[in-house]
Write a structure and sequence with these properties.
73% helix; globular; two-stranded antiparallel sheet; 2 strands
């Protein structure tokens, strides 16, 4: 009975409600960390559409994150455009770049695909690093303005809050909408076809599936949502810098996906929470935090070979198979 009740609980809605109350704690630090987790969780989940659902390992997903961040930042700061226009333009620009890069990348497989995605990402990083007149070059694009969120004052319970807390609520709603869209995509017939391609692309090709076309569509969708995450990240940090498109940002997203569980939809979000929470705690205690963090991640990956969510799901599945005492 307890198991059936547990299965019926809408956990996503419960987490959303709990997250909604974070600013009420009155801590700017926790609100800031929660905003960071949401944005990077969306970024990692967009990558998981390629890695976990389609079986494509991308080392250059940060390219679309950077394109979205710079597009939104430039439009809002340089041209005075609204946040809504900048966000939509960022997503479309990232999707357009993903179409261009994906056209070439999906023609290759396995490690060659992964290395080509990284090569394209390095091109984007070099443009961001050197195009001083547009991107600010090495100094980046600083003082990106916050969107006008004065209208939130009229919402009961949100009046009198700081701009950072208002932006957290905006981020929470936008990320929830994007995650809902990604979940719908992954559970749709299109998503099931991507899973079929992941399991056996040769068999999918044999039964008449245009594998490259499906892979390109997944590549573009992943780039689109990465652009949304990048746009929100640039505003959150009040600036966009070339490291947004560097290979280390792609590696960070890969770690989040693998740590949380790449075969589980909510795995990347849990991985983002774990990685950021560990990073925040360890850096406050020691200057050797990269070494300590690396050791902890290795232990976690050995303890949870299917990722945290994947291993817990397997454990719960095993318990369900056992007869009740």
């Amino acid at each position: 009975m307890r198991r059936r009740l547990c299965d019926r609980i809408p956990w996503a809605a419960v987490v959303f409600v709990v997250a909604f109350g974070i600013p009420a704690l009155g801590s700017r630090f926790y609100t800031s960390v929660a905003t960071d987790i949401l944005i990077l969780g969306l970024f990692a989940t967009s990558l998981n559409l390629l890695l976990g659902t389609t079986g494509l390992v991308s080392f250059g997903h940060a390219a679309y994150f950077a394109v979205g961040a710079y597009t939104c930042g430039i439009l809002m700061k340089t041209y005075g455009m609204s946040f809504t226009f900048g966000l939509v333009a960022a997503a479309l620009a990232a999707g357009a770049v993903a179409v261009l890069f994906g056209f070439f990348c999906v023609r290759l497989t396995k490690i060659y695909f992964a290395m080509l995605t990284m090569a394209f990402a390095q091109i984007v990083w070099a443009i961001c690093f050197k195009w001083n007149d547009v991107t600010g070059g090495e100094s980046g694009l600083i003082n990106v303005p916050y969107p006008d969120l004065g209208w939130m004052e009229a919402i009961p319970g949100l009046g009198g809050m700081r701009i950072g807390e208002h932006y957290f609520y905006l981020t929470l709603v936008l990320v929830a909408a994007c995650l809902a869209a990604l979940r719908r995509i992954s559970q749709s017939p299109f998503g099931r076809m991507l899973t079929t391609i992941r399991e056996n692309p040769e068999r999918a090709e044999f039964i008449g599936v245009h594998v490259r076309r499906y892979e390109l569509a997944a590549f573009v969708m992943a780039g689109f949502f990465a652009g949304v995450a990048g746009a929100m990240f640039g505003i959150f940090n009040r600036g966009v810098f070339p490291d947004a498109g560097y290979w280390a940002r792609s590696a960070e997203a890969l770690i989040m996906v693998i740590l949380g569980g790449m075969n589980q939809f909510w795995g990347p979000l849990v991985g983002a929470f774990m990685l950021i929470a560990l990073n925040q705690q360890i850096t406050s205690y020691t200057e050797y935090w990269p070494l300590v963090l690396g050791v902890i991640l290795i232990v976690l990956l050995f303890a949870f070979p299917a990722g945290i969510v994947g291993s817990l799901a397997s454990l719960l599945s095993d318990r369900r198979r056992r007869p009740d005492a």
